[in-house]
From TrEMBL:
Topology class, membrane: Multi-pass membrane protein
InterPro entries: AAA+_ATPase (IPR003593), ABC1_TM_dom (IPR011527), ABC1_TM_sf (IPR036640), ABC_transporter-like_ATP-bd (IPR003439), ABC_transporter-like_CS (IPR017871), P-loop_NTPase (IPR027417), Type_1_exporter (IPR039421)
Species of provenance: Verminephrobacter aporrectodeae subsp. tuberculatae
Protein name: ABC transporter ATP-binding protein
ABC transporter domain ranges (all copies): 340-573
Alphabetized UniProt keyword annotations: ATP-binding, Cell membrane, Membrane, Nucleotide-binding, Transmembrane, Transmembrane helix
Positions of the ABC transmembrane type-1 domain: 25-309
PROSITE patterns registered for this protein in UniProt: ABC_TM1F, ABC_TRANSPORTER_1, ABC_TRANSPORTER_2
Molecular function per GO: ATP binding
Subcellular location: Cell membrane
Transmembrane segments: 22-47, 67-84, 141-162, 168-189, 262-286
Amino acid sequence: MADFVQASLRVIRASGHSPARIYTGLALHVAERACAIAPYFLAWFWLSRSAPFGPGVAGPWAWVEPAAWLVLLVLGQMLLSYLGQMNNFLGGYALTIAYRGRLIDHLQRLPLGVFGRQRIGHLASVMTDDVKRMEDVFTHLSAELLASISVPLLFAAMLVWIDWRLTLALLATWPLALAALNGANRFFLARGVRKQKLFLETSGLIVEFIGGLRTLRLFHRAQAWLQGLDARFAQIRQHSMGAEAWGGGSVLVYRIVLEGGLLLLLAVAGWLIAHATLTPLTWLLFVLVACKVLDPLLDAAAYLVELRALVQSETRLQQLLDEPVLKEGGRTEAPPGFAVSYRHVGFGYGAQRVLHDISFDVPEQGVTAIVGPSGAGKSTLLELLARFYDPQEGSIALGGVDLRALCSDTLYRQLGFVFQDVQLFDGSVLENVRVGREGASDGEVIEACRLACCDAFVQRLPDGYATRIGENGQQLSGGERQRLSIARALLKDAPVLLLDEATASVDAQSQHEIQQALSQLVAGRTVIMIAHRLPTIRHADQILVLDQGRIRERGTHASLLAQGGLYAQLWRAQEAMAAPLDGA
């Protein structure tokens, strides 16, 4: 219970929204339940004053007052129930909207590299399912839980005043029932954590399976993936059954022990009647209200088990909020120049070091190429310049200004991107290219597409530039998607350009067209490019050869070939691979 209260308070603080309306709804809910139980005690009071239980009240109007009170209580209960639910629902929805907005705002301020470490399905589940569970807490469950606890307490307060012996007998087993419920809590939560972890991982696998189904079927791997998913589903089923066994079993034990209070009540009542110390009216009252006291406590067990699972949802959301955001610099004006400098940069993912003491300069409007074996750290160098992460050692400057001093919007206005993994959206060609510069006219978009050698294939599409290209541009070839990303970068017209193996995964014809488009794009810009095909960088101003996170060689194409080092080995290896293809 304490964990649930703390989790709820964390959500309230994180939302920044006033919980006053929720608290009002909870208070009204308790008042509504008080109105529901009041008739029992009013009846006992009136009967105790009436024959044959009491001295009796004379006159024909003796029952007018009780009837009036009952009508008022019924009307009051209806009004309080309506107002309580309205405040709970409206307050809960408003708070959850604010909380979801805080999460989205936090996501926007996270380093972009964080999203590369998370499965899309995992993030989607956390942002939808877990937030929905917290919404249910504030709109439904908190009120129900409070009612299931407040009603017995209200009853107990009145019953103790009437006969403390019977009240103690009725509730004597409750502490034992709670102990049984809490005893299984550790095992239930452990099973629940494993189940939810498997569920989130499986959600990510399903997203990957659907997204890669075409490739999997073409390579006859779809069945193997399905078998893997079936195995995950079997594990989820096993852990779900374990969680239900501990959760449901503990609730069953709780109910049996709690209902033992009824037996104890009968035993104590029998003893009191035998000793003539219990009045028939008092015994009648306890017979009528005993189940009214125990039923909410029985419901409370189910709510507590459910709320413990909801605490796990809040924990995952809090872990997301605990991810350190990208520290925004205060400088909003553009740097005075667009030369790039790396100074003693070091970086790693956890304990794995990726870059070691990297230092180099890229002159303004100069072209620097980065090559090296797979896993050498080439892409990480560009990601640091784009502030997907901040370097853990050293610094990176643009125009002499440390990137950390620039606000993100200012930095990204200076950078253009063309990556191997192109991200397009389910919209028209015009809409996808216009992402490069919001507000660009159709003519400006079409001109950028023409310069990027897109116009020919776009004209062949059913609706030309208005054609919807499907999710992530699935209706286009790899080369066509890449040229659209170049058109987007041309439209943005940023002074610094980052290219990450833009021609690595396309055929020779597409490579030629992309190279033509890139020649338009790099003109007059500061360029840092990662290249897989070395012939595409022969004319770079400088080439950096990266190996195991360190710069092993640097120079021009000719000087590096003359050195006969790693670059020369890579060049000869590519020539050897190309020779059979040329002969064919």
